[in-house]
Amino acid sequence: MSLPTGATVVGIKCSDGAVVATDSLVSWGTFILTDKGVKAFKLTDSIVLASAGLTSDYQMLVNRLQAYIKLYELNQKKAISVKALAKMIANTLYQQKMAPLYVQTVIVGVDDSGPALYSLDMGGSLIPDEYTATGSGTQTAYGVLERDYKEGLTVKEAEKIAVTAVKAGIARDAQSGGSIRVMTVTKDGVTEQVVDN
To answer: Could you give the CA distance from residue 58 to residue 39 in angstroms, rounded to a whole number?
Structure first.
């Protein structure tokens, strides 16, 4: 489905963590609303969500998930795992498939099972993977990922690949642009950096 907003979002699972990188352009069709948009969000101390699609939809999804996470952790008396949160998102999206949220989502994190990466479409399909790209810059970003990804990457190596992939998306997709936000998750927590394009 063609969406009125664009993005380039990349996720990479690593030997010691996981990385997501996004552009920062928020557009509506051919109109640029801002080049300072935020498309990646820290949901817990060890899980990050990044999303392409309609800004209001992924912002609403993040707000809803923050409440769901608190409820889960109160009920279960433990931190939510990456897989449990990804399934929670898949269920949320599936329940709304007749009036969908226009989002393409990437979840990365680290828990007791190690690093994890999941991608989800707006219908709630849940796909575990080693790397992924989503948004209108997907095809160009995948070219970089398929060329440069190798098993056993460290987060430092993956950060460079993710930035290169998002830059490639920005270069070829008119609806991607601005600076590049990189969020890295390791056993020590979440770090964030912004790279000028």
So the answer is: 8
- Pick from 9-13, 16-20, 96-100: least confident: 96-100
pLDDT of 139-171, one tens digit each? 999 999 999 999 999 999 999 999 999 999 999
Q: 47, 16, 84, 24: which is closest to 190 by C-alpha?
A: 47
The answer to whether 32 touches 25, Cβ cutoff 8 Å, is yes
pLDDT at 4: 55
Active-site annotation holds for 8:
yes
pLDDT for the residue numbered 1? 42
- What does the H/E/C string look like for 17-75? CEEEEECCCEEECCEEEECCCCCEEEEECCEEEEEEECHHHHHHHHHHHHHHHHHHHHH
Report residue 78 as tokens. 């433990």
End-to-end CA distance of the chain: 28
Domains, in order of start, for the chain: 9-195 (3.60.20.10)
State the catalytic residue, choosing from 8, 134, 140, 184.
8
